Structure formats: C-alpha cells, structure tokens
Amino acid sequence: MSDKTKEIKEIKAIPKIKSGFVALIGFPNVGKSTLLNQMIGTKISIVSPKPQTTRFNIRGVLTKDHYQIVFIDTPGIHDAKSLFNKMMVEEALNALEEVDIILWVVDVTHRLPEEEKLLDLIKKANKPTILVLNKIDLIKKSELLPMIDYFSKLHDFKAIIPVSALKNDGVDRIINELVELLPEGPFYYEPDRVTDLPLSLLIAEIIREKIFQHTYQEIPYSTAVKVEEIREDKERNFLYIQATIFIERDSQKGIIIGKKGQMLKKIGTLAREELEFLLGKKIYLDLWVKALKDWREKESHIRNLAIPFKD
After folding, report:
1. Superfamily of chain region 199-304
2. Are the C-beta atoms of residues 263 and 210 closer than 8 Å to each other?
3. 168: number of Cβ within 10 Å
4. Which of 199, 184, 193, 161 is nearest to 62 (CA)?
5. φ, ψ (nearest 5 deg) of residue 18
6. What is the DSSP string of the chain?
7. What does the pLDDT average to over 246-261?
8. N or C: which end of the chain has fewer CB within 10 A?
C-alpha cells in the first residue's frame, strides 16, 4: 500500500464532528433534572421530590472526542396560575423552537391525561423526538410493553427508551441515539465546560435546593435566592458568599429561620458543604432572609432577583 493510499484511508477513518441542542421536556417531577445530571456525569440541575423545582432553562454540556450535546433542562410544563409560573412554562415551550432534538420525559408511575396536549406541542415543533419512559424501576415489566406499544402508535418517535434515571439504567442508550441524530457542526463550548450557569446562579440554586428539601407546603415556592456578593481570598483558598433568601410575606420568615435560627443554619450548612465539594475550596456562607411582597406576581421583582428568563 502506498503512503498516499494509507493517508487517504486514515483521513476517512476520522469521525465527523457532530453537535447540537437537545431539550428535555415533560411535566413537573418526571425526573428531567436527575436524567440531565446522569447524562452529564455531574450535578448541573438541582433536584427534589417536589414538582416545579426547575424554574428556568439550564444548559448542560456533554463533550466527547467527536460530538458535543448541549442539553437544555426546562421547567415542568403545568397549568400555570401566577405570572412567575407562566414565565416558567413559556421558557420551556420556547426551548422547543430553539433545539435540534427533543427528549420527552414521561414518568411511567404517574401518567396524566394532558400527555396528548403536550404531544401536540411536540408535533407542532416538528423536531426529531425521543421518548424517555422514566422510573421503570418502580413498575412491573409486564406494564412496560403495553405502554411502549401505546406511545409508538401516537407518534413516529426516533426511539422509545425505558430508563431509570435515578439508577443510571438505560441512560447510555439515550446518548447513543442522540449522537446518531446530531447534525454535523462545531463545538459551541470549550470541551471542559459542563454548563453555562454563572457561579452566582449555581450557588443560588444549591441554596434553593436545600430550601426545597427541608421546608414544606408553599414555602419552597414562595422563596427565591439572590447572591449579593462573592469575595475570594486567594491566599487562604477561601470564598466569602453573601446571599439573600427572599420570601413573599413576613410571616414566612419564621419558618425559614426556624426556632433559634436552626432551620436557616441547617440550610446554610448543607449548602456550604455541597458548594465546598463542587468548588474545591472552603466557603463562608452568610445567609439573610427578607420579605418581598408577592414577588411572583411582579415582573420587575422577578427580573431583580436575577432569575434568567429571556426577555
């Protein structure tokens, strides 16, 4: 074999670079954020057992030698009442128009009659769609096949993939199917980047996650977190972070702060420990609690809280 022929064969063997944007769409609490974190291999999006935890579109980036997938974790689509929740749903629906591929995530343990309405929106977007049937570890195998058959008759999905995002079962197959569907294109982010979330928002989200996990009823939904200051002491590899937890009514302050400040201390300690692990440095987390009356109903308040909705 001549050197020239060998060179041509080697060139042909080089995989084409593929890249694209993928929206994770579904109802609240179907496991989109857990699935995103598993696909990326690190924590990008906060999770809790409560619905409507994700409030805005969060990008997670998966890069390998010959492909880059930019995932967009969207807020759960629901019947929104407040202005804030309507803005959340609008964020999710806008993502359908901006991506190359749609991942529709369905909770197999909690089917909803509104599924067909959501499917109509997906059809209207006219994008290649993969259906992910999540939480299969919680149902009998005999229940799964009829479900796959039912959905296969509703739409020409590129694939229907049963998974357990929590147990990382079936997640690799999703990635393989996505790579097949990706268009050729350049990398949009540096190979070592896993999210475009600014540090201040990452910190705010981690704090908010702890509020979701340790407070109840309306309190998690009435709160927003804004990071006011991040100050670094390079000599001591130390970060000072000051953040404010906003609630809607003065009466909610006591619940967030707790008896003798115990709840606020618990939220702060858990958030600080996770942030130290994620950022690899010691952190002093200074939390304050303030009331901002009916902030979910006033767009000016929503914008001032640094929640990154699109204009």
Report:
1. K homology (KH) domain (3.30.300.20)
2. no
3. 15
4. 193
5. -125, 145
6. --HHHHHHHHHHHSPPPEEEEEEEE-STTSSHHHHHHHHHTS--S---SSSS---S-EEEEEEETTEEEEEEEPPPP----SHHHHHHHHHHHHHHHH-SEEEEEEETTS--TTHHHHHHHHHHHT--EEEEEE-GGGS-HHHHHHHHHHHHTT---SEEEE-BTTTTBSHHHHHHHHHHHPPB---SS-TT--B---HHHHHHHHHHHHHHHH--TTHHHH-EEEEEEEEEETTTTEEEEEEEEEESSGGGHHHHH-GGGHHHHHHHHHHHHHHHHHHTSEEEEEEEEEE-TTGGG-HHHHHHTT-----
7. 94
8. C
Asked whether 221 and 82 are in contact (CB, 8 A), the reply is no
CA 269/CA 264 separation, integer angstroms: 8
- For residue 144, the one-letter residue type is L
| Mean pLDDT confidence for 101-111 | 96
The β-bridge relationship of strands 129-134 and 159-162 is parallel
pLDDT tens track for 266-285 = 999 999 999 999 898 999 99
Q: Domain 3-181: which CATH class?
A: alpha beta
Contact present, 284 and 241 (Cβ < 8 Å): yes
The answer to whether residues 62 and 74 touch, using CB atoms and an 8 Å cutoff, is no
Spell out the domain ranges in the chain.
Answer: 3-181, 199-304
The pLDDT of residue 2 is above 60? no
Which region holds residue 194: left if phi is over 0, alpha if psi is between -120 and 50, else beta?
A: alpha
Q: Report the residue count for the chain.
A: 311
With CA atoms as reference, report the closest residue to 133 among 99, 171, 162, 104.
Answer: 162
Cα distance between residue 226 and residue 244, in whole Å: 5
pTM: 0.88
Q: Give the Cα separation of 60 and 125 in Å (integer).
A: 22
CA distance 77 to 102: 14
Handedness of CA 256, 200, 165, 149 (dihedral sign): positive
